[in-house]
Amino acid sequence: xxxxxxxxxxxxxxxxxxxxxxxxxxxxxxxxxxxxxxxxxxxxxxxxxxxxxxxxxxxxxxxxxxxxxxxxxxxxxxxxxxxxxxxxxxxxxxxxxxxxxxxxxxxxxxxxxxxxxxxxxxxxxxxxxxxxxxxxxxxxxxxxxxxxxxxxxxxxxxxxxxxxxxxxxxxxxx
Length: 174
What we know:
The protein is α+β, with helices and mostly antiparallel strands. The chain has helices at residues 7-14, 20-32, 48-51, 90-94, 100-111, 122-134, 144-155, 162-168, and strands spanning 4-6, 38-40, 54-60, 66-72, 86-89, 112-113, 116-117. It has two domains: 4-94, no CATH class; 119-168. The strands form three sheets. Strands 1-5-2 form a three-stranded antiparallel sheet. A two-stranded antiparallel ribbon has the order 3-4. A two-stranded antiparallel ribbon has the order 6-7.
């Protein structure tokens, strides 16, 4: 897929494997270093002096909803929040994603124990299924305590299953 995408779409392209705040930081770094061009109001890419001070900021609500915008970190250069429509090149955003080989190797090591492969827990499958339904765009922006509360209440799991919930959702690996 080529073309441009909105700021929110660009973040969603990076989440997962990145967490929400990591995706915003990665986009900020890429814009500042000109590895990912930023477009303003469907125009040409923004000028270098603007890209160098641009920062992706997220506003995350308690219920997990979020919005994104670009702000200026430079002196004497600024604009009203939401005043512009920001876009990115889709291919340049996709190039920022971590390589899948490293993630696959980590998963293989975590799943295998010697020559036996661990079985998946039905409880953990139910937790993952609920989380995918509840947060279709990812739950990286939700705090651990909120995840445990929301998932535990929905599935009727006691607080003693906190570690099970966090492991199922990749928040704990031990």
